[in-house]
């Protein structure tokens, strides 16, 4: 089975996330895409994200659009409050023998940031990668990728999927939600309903 781990803060999940998961699933014949909200994202220390349970619930609703999509709690908050490192999650999935072929799905911005992640060299080698284009982030400018990232691209372990142009970010979306703008084009209806019901993303 071809499976992709799609980690993120998902605060909240948006149509950009769904579009990139669909593009990756179609292009690489993925049978499952696991959307895994992170309990505590090590590189986003500023500000507290929306409660994990709410982010999971919104992702679960969003995943209803495609039978290949599932929410996963592999990155649930740790008991001692420590951050969730992708390298540990992927290693654990491999140990548990989940998926014959495991991909890690990320946007171009995240992949460019990878050298700052925990144990990037080890993480790069653990799975295959699908890196999806994101407006404003180029993978091709000289010096953007580290030597080991380039070498994994050359070995065919990193697959670039550059047909996606989704100009949506959760940060911008939160601002729009706070300002009570119409966000139907950016967020699935069921997720908007959840946000309304639970009073999320309201200005203080
Ligand atoms: P924020 O604006 O708060 O950084 P985000 O929109 O990037 O949030 P995340 O939950 O941090 O959302 O992203 C999860 C994953 O999805 C990351 O790998 C990110 O690169 C990717 N991603 C999110 N939005 C897009 C997009 N519009 N195009 C391509 N990749 C995206």
Describe this entry's structure for a reader.
The chain is of the alpha/beta class. The protein has a single domain, classed as Rossmann fold, CATH 3.40.50.620. Helices cover 36% and strands 16% of the residues. The chain contains 8 helices and 6 strands. It has helices at 15-28, 52-62, 86-95, 108-113, 120-126, 147-154, 170-178, 189-197, and strands at 2-8, 32-37, 69-71, 101-107, 128-132, 158-161. The chain has a 6-stranded parallel sheet with strand order 3-2-1-4-5-6, sandwiched between helices. Helix 1 (15-28) links the parallel strand 1 and strand 2. The longest helix is centred in the first third of the chain and has 14 residues, at 15-28. The site of adenosine-5'-triphosphate has 17 residues, from helix 1, strand 4, helix 4 and helix 7.
Query: Per DSSP, what share of the residues sits in E-state strands of 2 or more residues?
Result: 15-25%
Main sheet: strands, sense, barrel: 6 strands, parallel
Low-confidence stretches: none
CATH architecture: 3-Layer(aba) Sandwich
Q: How many discrete structural domains? A: 1
> Terminal Cα separation, in Å?
46 Å
The H/E string reads EHEHEHEHHEHEHH
Average predicted confidence as pLDDT? 94
Q: How many beta-strand elements?
A: 6
Query: Looking at CATH, which topology would you report?
Result: Rossmann fold
Cofactors and ligands present?
Answer: adenosine-5'-triphosphate
Strand order of the largest sheet: 3-2-1-4-5-6
Number of helices: 8
